[in-house]
Amino acid sequence: MSELDETDPFVSRLDAPTLRAARERGGSAVVVGGAMAGLAAAHALRALDWDVVLYERQSYADKRVNCGEAMTDAGSIPLPKTPAYGFANRPPAFEVHVYTGETGARTLAGEGVFPSTDGYVTDRNVVERRWAEQLAEQGVDVRESTGVRKAQFRAFSEEFDLVVDATGQPSMASKVDGTTGEYAGRMTALNADVEGDFSELYPNSRILFENYLGYAWAFPKSETRANVGIGWAEDKLPDDYYAAFVAACERNDWPVPDRSAMNIYTIPRGPSLDPERTWDAERRIARVGDAAGVANRFTGKGISQAVESSYLLAELAARNRLDDYPEELYDRMKNEYRLAYVVRGALEDGRPDILGGVMNAVSGIDVEAVDREPRHAFSRLVRHPVLLAKLAANPTMLSRLLDAYTDDWEYRKTAETPTRS
Ligand SMILES: Cc1cc2nc3c(=O)[nH]c(=O)nc-3n(C[C@H](O)[C@H](O)[C@H](O)COP(=O)(O)OP(=O)(O)OC[C@H]3O[C@@H](n4cnc5c(N)ncnc54)[C@H](O)[C@@H]3O)c2cc1C
């Protein structure tokens, strides 16, 4: 049997009898995709003493991944929080500034400071490489530089008790099923690591809303190095992404990255709320992380969500309740999505005054708690009558609030996807 560390962030979710029974039962799993969601799934299933094979199509030594570098709830990642493991800076807070526009004449419409008790700005490629190394030492069969093809993926259902699809978006399962179009409404983002003077901001991080459907950010890793980026939602992309990124760097006094240093990614609004897609009981395929589309709809933040989805899956495997995965995932994410859906309305409507008011009102709540316990944010809003009056007078916000509370939103509003029963 594999060794068990009872202080491990996944292991501590289970009581001793459940854990013992699960480890005695064992099982086999293939995890396809070895980024944060896949690494978390492999880690948790291995802790249950399952035989785990992990496929990652890139080599960890070469992998260039600098999205998802601000990791909250870092305690769920079982690695020492030191620079050698990629945890570069522990920002005391994330600052959010809301501006009325993106020109020189802009004014500040509101701001929030969100303390971060367990967040880090990371070199994500180092975190992933170190986690994969640790998994290999723990007995996971890590097959890097090995992309899984469709035929192979189909065959996995015959070979393993559980197939974990952690391939990001669009996911392998959707490719196999020909349903990649379900990853709609995405955000496109450009980012890069840059060298420059960040001493004024460091160790904090900053996110800027500048009255377009998206936002920009600076996440310092030290006083002289930071990840900077900008993203736009859905159909509101600029014609020239690079020029728009350069303009954002210039107006915010950040160094302009070289074009060759930039990465471009998309953040999906995936099928996470559709239980029919996150778990295919017949083929024993579960989607986690971005493959399940669990990144936050407003901020695009998806690392803690990815890890949580994988740990939840493994926890249910331990309890012999895998069929409950879609409903449990939906229940965990629902409130976060509700808040994101409502607040996003202010951006879509071009109302920096409302968004700024929301930031002023919710300022001070822990950055991870905004996602995990959005009721705190909602209860803050209720205590601001002027803001409430503005929300009530705005048809977009009102209809979004109503949708959120009647659960009539997200994929249920998308014609081509089935309605949740
Ligand atoms: C620009 C940008 C900035 C972001 N910033 C943040 C942030 O600061 N904080 C945050 O929390 N989130 C952030 N996010 C979101 C976050 O990056 C994602 O939610 C997260 O990466 C999801 O992790 P994942 O493991 O599910 O998927 P991915 O990171 O997409 O990983 C999928 C993995 O699967 C592998 N793979 C794919 N197909 C195959 C195959 N056929 N065979 C084998 N392997 C395969 C890929 O190589 C990849 O390693 C950001 C996103 C973007 C785009």
Automatic annotation (TrEMBL):
<dbReference type="Pfam" id="PF22578">
    <property type="entry name" value="GGR_cat"/>
</dbReference>
<dbReference type="InterPro" id="IPR050407">
    <property type="entry name" value="Geranylgeranyl_reductase"/>
</dbReference>
<protein>
    <submittedName>
        <fullName>Digeranylgeranylglycerophospholipid reductase</fullName>
    </submittedName>
</protein>
<feature type="domain" description="Digeranylgeranylglycerophospholipid reductase catalytic">
    <location>
        <begin position="186"/>
        <end position="249"/>
    </location>
</feature>
<dbReference type="InterPro" id="IPR054715">
    <property type="entry name" value="GGR_cat"/>
</dbReference>
<dbReference type="InterPro" id="IPR036188">
    <property type="entry name" value="FAD/NAD-bd_sf"/>
</dbReference>
